[in-house]
Amino acid sequence: MSLQEILNHRRAVRHFDSVKPIDETTVKKCIELASLAPTSSNLQLWEAYHVTDKQVLEQLVPACLDQKTARSAQQIVVFVTRQDRYKQHAKAVLAFEEGNVRRNSPAERQDKRIKDKAMYYGKLIPFTYSRCLGLWGLVRKGLAQCIGLFRPMTRQMSEGDVRVSVHKSCALVAQTFMLAMSEAGYDTCPLEGFDSWRVKKALKLPYNTEINMVITCGIRVPSGVWGERFRLPFEETYHKV
Ligand SMILES: Cc1cc2nc3c(=O)[nH]c(=O)nc-3n(C[C@H](O)[C@H](O)[C@H](O)COP(=O)(O)O)c2cc1C
After folding, report:
1. C-alpha 132 – ligand 1 centre gap (Å)
2. Which residues form the Nitroreductase domain (predicted)?
3. How far, in Å, is the centroid of ligand 1 from the Cα of 33?
4. Binding site membership of 170 for ligand 1 (Cβ less than 6 Å)
5. For residues 65 and 100, is the Cβ–Cβ distance under 8 A?
6. Burial of 222 (0-12, 13-18, 19+ CB in 10 A)
7. Atom 26 of ligand 1 has which residue's CA nearest to it?
8. Which domains can be identified in the chain, with CATH numbers?
């Protein structure tokens, strides 16, 4: 399928076929492809929980408010944010980038580039992603507003802003997963209608993780797609500047 065909084929599917199985390895491969999605500062503060176990799937049904798409799902993938892992991931990106610069940058620029990356991942990222009951974010935001008086400056620096940023990146991963599933001939439905506490309990997730999206998976039955697709007139959303 071309990208256009994939985009047209992907629909939110509310009822999956109960007999047609989907292949676990193919779903896993789609999650792997989803990891190619871009993330802010390449920090990859997300994880995917691929649920195939019958008992856990059953626990997820009430946690997803008993929606039919969850009841009929063959497998479920839960995308989770891991803002708490920013230090480890920044360290991993920096270690990779040092080698990347050595392998690919002109010799005379290497030291400066490595120094800049060490500053970014060693100092700026920990400064931006750390949390302390919202207070640390207020300090950052205040600082950003002051600097912003004199030069362009990223102003989304509160703890809430950074949390949104982490979820934004994770949602790109989730969307990439759904498109990969479409290409594989499988269907999905992204869910926001869930009880996050119960989903976390079913998956035994640590306290500081957040559920970004629950994605039900299977193969559609014809009635699984609720009729025609509605989109606002394109002119209402498109603005040429
Ligand atoms: C973040 C998000 C949360 C959603 N939550 C639900 C949900 O809880 N239950 C549901 O049936 N559909 C849910 N949907 C599916 C949307 O209703 C659906 O994508 C939209 O109506 C457009 O239909 P289409 O995906 O077939 O184009 C969600 C979609 C997104 C992106």
Report:
1. 33
2. 9-218
3. 22
4. no
5. no
6. exposed
7. 11
8. 3-84+162-237 (3.40.109.10), 86-159 (no CATH)
Q: What would the two tokens of residue 66 be?
A: 């008993």
Q: 134 pLDDT exceeds 90?
A: no
- CB neighbour list of residue 102: distance below 8 Å, 6 or more residues apart: 110, 114
Only one residue has tokens 């392998």, namely: 103
What stretches of the chain adopt beta strand conformation (E)?
Answer: 46-51, 75-81, 187-191, 210-218
- The total of other beta-carbon atoms located within 10 Å of residue 98's CB is 16
- 97-106: average pLDDT: 97
**How many whole angstroms from its chain centre is CA 106?**
34
Q: What is the rounded CA–CA span in Å between residue 86 and residue 69?
A: 33
pLDDT digits (tens, 9 = 90+) for 10-24: 999 999 999 999 999
CA 17 vs. chain centroid, Å, equals 27
